[in-house]
User: Fold these one by one.
Assistant:
Number 1:
Amino acid sequence: MLKERTLTITPDALDSMITDYHWMVNTIKEMRSEMVIEAKTAQYGIEATLPKAAGGVGDPIMQEAIRRSKNIKRVVEYEKKLLEVQNLIERVAGDREVQVLNWMLDGKSQRWIGQHMALSATSIRRIKNSIVCQMLA
């Protein structure tokens, strides 16, 4: 049984997910490494007796936990996009298309790809459009 796609993807959205794939992978790795929160240390001296700010969380560790919990939501969204692209990769046929897609997922620019394949920018754009069409077919 094939797994159905969970997201409705437009060609522009898929194009953007392919373009952003590399930095999303790096961002997920970095955010996961930062998600560990260290234990709270007690306050001593005059800081312990001073009043906390009204209207917000006075605990800086709690503030950091709140900030990082928002990052978790972003990581989940990035993971959904990455999985969607990964599920569609097998639909791409053709040696040029596969190579261009792999280089794009590795974070190479279209200009770099064109130079290394000895193709014009227009050809790379055409190949990228072909990739998107094949993935959505």
Number 2:
Amino acid sequence: MVAVVPSPPLLVPQLVAGRAAETAELRSACLRAASRLADAADRWIVVAADPGGRRTLVQPVGGTFVGYGVDVPVALAPGAPVKPDLPLPLLIAGWLRGEVAEHVVAAAELVPPDLSAEECRAIGADLAGGAGSAGLLVVGDGAITHTQKAPGYLDRRAGPFDDRVADALAAADPHALLALDVRLATELGAAGRAPWQVLAGATLALGGEWHGERLYSAAPYGVAYHVAVWWL
């Protein structure tokens, strides 16, 4: 089982105060995806991109959103020690776990955002070989260039790029994910590209007939967020 979610801090109601209703649909989709993953697996591997480079966190850790304005503690397992400056995707993973699946224990695989598609596929295959019954929680955003007010301003290539991502996730098509252009994704600020391609490598290595359901795809505030689940 695989769940794909984005990593905006605005998912956490305490961080958006009176504007939580604006992101209710996105938040609900993420919680549904995490719930379905928790129903299938009580051990997760969180896959995300991080500028700090390739890291494997076998021991679960915790953190806090204090750097985003409110001290909301989260963890990847019950009682996990707090790690300062935990990357945002892992904070989001910890928040989702705490909301829907406090029994879950999660490890993490962080990859550089500029990793090649071939390297992503190889990491995914390695994960598949050692994951056992673990579910994958794949965390990452799409293009940050969908509007003039977006963090990356407007780039008209963002629409077609994220349409391809959304279609690939809906169809559980790992080949389409692997075909995403690394340079274009980088220029669009799509940090989810590398984690999605790790997902593709893992599912191809596992084989079988994968099914997909897209729960959300939109670009509020000019940033594309995709939520989906895949299962065998």
Number 3:
Amino acid sequence: MKMLTEEELIQIRRHLHQIPELALQEFETHQYLVDTIASFNQAFLEVRTFKELPTALMVLVHGQNPQRTIGYRTDIDALPVEEQTGLPYSSTHPGIMHACGHDIHMTVALGVLNYFSEHQPQDNLLFFFQPAEESENGGKRAYELGLFSGKWKPDEFYGLHDNPDLPAGTIGCRMGTLFAGTTEVNIDLIGKGGHAAYPQDANDTVVAAASLILQVQTVISRSIDPIQSGVITLGKIDGGTIRNVIAGHTRIEGTIRGLTQTMIETIDDRLKDVCEGIGRSFNMDVSLELNQGGYWPVENNPELTKRFIHYMEETPTVNFIETEPAMTGEDFGYLLAKFPGTMFWLGVEDDSQLHSATLTPNEKAIKRGVDAITGFLEYRMQN
């Protein structure tokens, strides 16, 4: 097969956009990826699938004289969002959409892989098509299942995320943390229900929950260095069944975000203290569940990121911007905690934000992204 043209890349992206699938259910997407890769020159390629993680896919491009294995990761799942773009190639799966741009991610990865299937690299290149980024901790699952072993173990790892706030094709990156890490928070308050007219015979969990929510606001403002960054959002509260019954159970759900794993653990510990204090103050059981999952901070490796930024800044065909850290989470953080590497932004220039039902990335970003990444990988293999 010849090199993919920009129009062919756009058609691949539009097909992927029409078949979005949720975490660990990406079977149609997986098959399309397998079939597309099978159409590439196979002389240097080795494709691997996994019984233990059926929708995961790896492709090893064997180098001419490999000194290292350079990994490149793309995510393949979608979100439970009903698309509202009105595009002729909108999602054909009701209630599911590539609202985070993973169709763009996959297409860029296929473009880079296609290039190196026709131009044998110096080093080995490992392409990881990862399921379950949005939920179910796909990166962590793959690592814990031992998928990265032997010749399938990268010495360093790279990956991108699309960014609608940047011009199409722009590369954005920074030293240090690019994405925050997250902890999902579930709090259950167990008291004693009763009649609204007899509060002395009950133990009101709604009142206790209100006090807890107010106290949590002081964790960031009074326990965290203001120069650093952290966020606690308690976005859901569910307590009671009717206006004249005192609630014996209230549940609060939220999220913690921080730019380092140490910061997240500090916030976690302070939240534990608040919950224990509320339990004692209101004489009730307060149960706190903290689920760190796979969303570790995306902390870019200093040496590799410095080299990446240098290439992008010095390449005339690349528009590079140094970006600020984002409080959004990204599953790639877990893999970067295990392998040195760099994550970066690819601008897709859109008025709608990520996870929006109207997200419409500018497709001019695809070929520009492919060119920037293939150029960097060739540079990396010589430096």
Number 4:
Amino acid sequence: MDLITYRRTHKLTQEALADRIGVSQPAYARYEAGQRVPRPAIMARIVQVTGGAVTEADMYRAHVARAAAAGGKEAA
């Protein structure tokens, strides 16, 4: 499951989920948009906070999909 789906399913704002994860809302927004892949420690927190509903693979997929949509101009 991606971060957007998790957040919307649980009726959370970006700010609320960011707070639970321990990052700023702007940082969280970049993860959700696939603009950045979280550092391993943050990724582990996301998996923990979501009860495993969002996995490391989900976050990498979002990032790779965004890079592909941008014409491969971003590093995967």
